[in-house]
C-alpha cells in the first residue's frame, strides 16, 4: 500500500478492526484525522498510520 493513499470509512474500519459507525463518529468528533470530499469522509493513510503510533504511545503511558 502507498503511504499517500486516501482511504474511505470502510477501509479505515477494516484497518482498525472496528465498525464503520465508530470511524464515522471518531471523524465527526475530530478524534481521528479526516477530511471531507463533497460531504464524504476520507482519510490519509499517512495520517492514520501516525494516529495509530500516537495511540500506541498514549496507551503505553497510561498502563505504566
Describe this structure in words.
The chain has 64 residues and is α+β, with helices and mostly antiparallel strands. The protein has a single domain (6-63), classed as Multidrug-efflux Transporter Regulator, Chain: A, Domain 2 (Orthogonal Bundle), CATH 1.10.1660. The protein is built from three helices and three strands, in the order E-H-H-E-E-H. The chain has helices at 9-16, 20-29, 45-63, and strands at 6-7, 35-37, 40-44. Helix 1 crosses helix 2. The model has no long low-confidence stretch (mean pLDDT 91).
- Class per helix and strand makeup: alpha+beta
Strand order of the largest sheet: 1-3-2
**What is the rounded Rg?**
12 Å
State the oligomer: single chain
Helical run tally: 3
User: Quick one: how many beta strands?
Assistant: 3
Contiguous runs where pLDDT drops below 50 for at least 5 residues: none
Cα(first) to Cα(last) distance is 33 Å
Provide the CATH architecture: Orthogonal Bundle
How would a crystallographer describe the biggest sheet? Answer: 3 strands, antiparallel
Amino acid at each position: 500500500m502507498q503511504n499517500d493513499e486516501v482511504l474511505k470509512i470502510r477501509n479505515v474500519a477494516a484497518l482498525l478492526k472496528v465498525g464503520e459507525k465508530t470511524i464515522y463518529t471518531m471523524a465527526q468528533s475530530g478524534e481521528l484525522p479526516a477530511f471531507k470530499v463533497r460531504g464524504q469522509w476520507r482519510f490519509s493513510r499517512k495520517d492514520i498510520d501516525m494516529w495509530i503510533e500516537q495511540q500506541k504511545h498514549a496507551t503505553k503511558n497510561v498502563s505504566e
